[in-house]
Specification:
This protein is an alpha/beta fold and 259 residues long. It has two domains: 196 residues, 2-enoyl-CoA Hydratase, Chain A, domain 1 (Alpha-Beta Complex), CATH 3.90.226.10; 48 residues, Lyase 2-enoyl-coa Hydratase, Chain  A, domain 2. It contains eleven helices and nine strands. Strand 1 and strand 2 form a beta hairpin. Helix 9 packs antiparallel against helix 10. It is globular.
């Protein structure tokens, strides 16, 4: 598939997906979302990839849904369910990828941009980034998961603050809240990202995939059921991959494992 709204790069075991509509702050058009789906499927299928980075071209990570497209549907809402379904398919597929995903956020991450950021496993943000869900400011409500993901990330009161007031917070405040992993000066974003990626490149993709899957599934389970899920996955990893054997051998031989 040819991409015109995103850029997909693969290098040194890491895939990078760049939203490429900088003139409209990387607004999420249907065309961009279709390309996003195709690209993340390619990453899922590529066994050489150990991580996926999502970032935006230009001065923003993502300012949310394409409002011009939404305006075009006001007199005929028949296409609206398809757009919302596509939006959430992208975010849910991103969450389900069998590798860690990282959002690298500069400039604005607003509304759908915030929802995209939250669909990633980790977010590294510029200290001066502007982050928020401004749907309420325009008589709208979230459609890409903010009402569900935001309280799980920051607690009910902080989520209601952002969702109902529509205010923005800085990247530094987002990190303090746990909405982002950490915040750094904008000039240091790539260096901070590389420190995490370097730690991921040498890991077992099979192990990373199960760690991610079990951690996500366990969030909605009672503790005893989550531990049972982890126990089954532990045995499954030994039964379906030779990576544990290689890891144990490397430990015994005091060398780095080769996955």
């Amino acid at each position: 598939m040819e991409y015109s709204n995103i850029i997909l790069e693969k290098q040194n075991s890491v895939a990078t997906l760049r939203l490429n509509r900088p003139d409209v702050l990387n607004a999420l058009s249907p065309e961009l979302l279709e390309e996003f789906l195709a690209a993340t499927r390619r990453v899922a299928e590529d066994q050489g990839m150990k991580a996926l980075v999502i970032r935006g071209e230009g001065r923003a990570f993502c300012a949310g849904a394409d409002l011009l497209y939404l305006e075009s549907m006001l007199d005929d809402l028949s296409q609206m369910p398809d757009y919302v379904r596509l939006l959430n398919q992208c975010f849910c597929q991103l969450e389900a990828l069998p590798v860690p995903t990282l959002a690298l956020v500069q400039g604005f991450a607003l509304a759908g941009g915030l929802e995209l950021m939250m669909a990633c496993d980790m977010a590294i943000v510029a200290e001066d980034a502007r982050i928020g869900d401004q749907h309420a400011n325009f008589g709208l409500m979230p459609g890409g998961g903010s009402t569900q993901r935001l309280p799980r990330r920051v607690g009910l009161q902080r989520a209601m603050d952002l969702l109902t007031t529509g205010r923005w917070i800085s990247g530094a405040e987002a990190a303090d809240w746990g909405l982002a992993l950490r915040a750094v000066p904008a000039a240091e974003l790539d260096r901070e990202l590389e420190a995490i990626l370097e730690a991921l490149r040498g890991k077992s993709r099979a192990g990373l995939g199960l760690i991610k899957s079990v951690t996500q599934q366990g969030q909605g389970l009672p503790l005893v059921d989550g531990i049972a899920l982890e126990s089954m996955a532990f045995v499954q990893l030994f039964a379906t991959s030779d990576h544990p054997r290689e890891g144990i051998a490397a430990f015994k031989e005091k060398r780095q494992p080769s996955f």
